Amino acid sequence: MLDPAGLPAELADPRSAADRARSARNATAVALWPMIAPSHREAMAAHLQPFAAAIVDRGNPGTGFLAGLAAADGPAGPAMSLTMAYALANHRQTVRLAAGDALIELAARPGWDSTGIGAEVGTLATADRIVLQRIVQPLAEALKAGARDTVWQVTSAALPVLLPAGPRPGLADLVDLAANAAPRGGHSADLPGLAALAATPGRNRLTEAARRLAAFMPT
After folding, report:
1. CB-side exposure of 164: number of CA atoms within 13 Å?
2. How far is CA 214 from the centre of its chain?
3. DSSP characters over 77-119
4. How far apart are CA 27 and CA 33, in angstroms?
5. How far apart, in whole angstroms, are the C-alpha atoms of residue 74 and residue 206?
6. For the region Disordered, what residue ranges are annotated (predicted)?
7. In the Cβ-directed half-sphere of 92, how many Cα atoms lie within 13 Å?
8. What is the spatial distance between Cα 172 and Cα 51, in angstroms, rounded to a whole number?
C-alpha cells in the first residue's frame, strides 16, 4: 500500500494506491497469508483485516486464514481483535463457525486475552457495521467447548458499549451467554446499565437475562 515514489526501482510499483488495494482484496490465496510470517500474527492480521471487513456482507473469504492466524505465534493486538470480530459476524455460517474454532484454539494459548475482540464487537455492532445476532452461535459453540474465560472476556467487554445503546436483536442472547460464562468466584467487570435493565418491571428475554447476569455481579 506504500507510495512507490522514492523506492528503489526493483521495489517500485507503477500502479496507483487504489489499484494496489483492489488487487490485494481480490487475492485468491488469502488462506496462505498467515504462513508468510507465522511468528508475526498481528502483522498478518493487519493485512487480512481490511479484507475481512470488506466481506462481512459479501464475497467468500474461505476459512483457512482463520486457522492460520490461530496457529501463528507472536503478540496479538488491534488488528487481530478486529479481524476476529468481523469473522465472528460474517454472513456465512461456515466462516462464523471457523472463527469460533479459531477462538477455541486461541483460548488454549498461554496468556491469550479476548477482551479486545469483545470491545470491537461492541463498537462495530453499535455502529451497525456488523449484525450482533450472528456472533451468538460461534460464541455458544466456544462455551460448549470449554472456552468459558474467553467467552466471558468477549461478552463482558462488548456489553459496556452495547447496554447503554439500548435493545437490539441479539443483545438478549449475548447477555445470556455472559451469564453462563461469568466467573462464579467473583470478577471485576463493570457493566453500566445492567442494574437498571435488571430492575426494569415486566418480563422479557432481555430483562430476564439481565437479572441472571446481575445475580453474578459483585455487590
Report:
1. 8
2. 24
3. -HHHHHHHHHHHT-SSHHHHHHHHHHHHHHHTSTT---HHHHH
4. 10
5. 39
6. 1-20
7. 14
8. 30
Q: How many CA atoms lie within 13 A of 30 on its CB side?
A: 23
CA-to-CA distance for 161 and 83, rounded, in angstroms?
Answer: 19
For helices 136-144 and 93-107, what crossing angle results, to 10°? 40
The low-confidence residues of the chain, meaning pLDDT below 50, are: 1-2, 57
The model carries a pTM of 0.83
Question: For the chain, how many residues are written?
Answer: 219
What pLDDT, on a 0 to 100 scale, did the predictor assign at position 184?
A: 77
| Amino acid found at 48 | L
Place of cell 477482551: 115
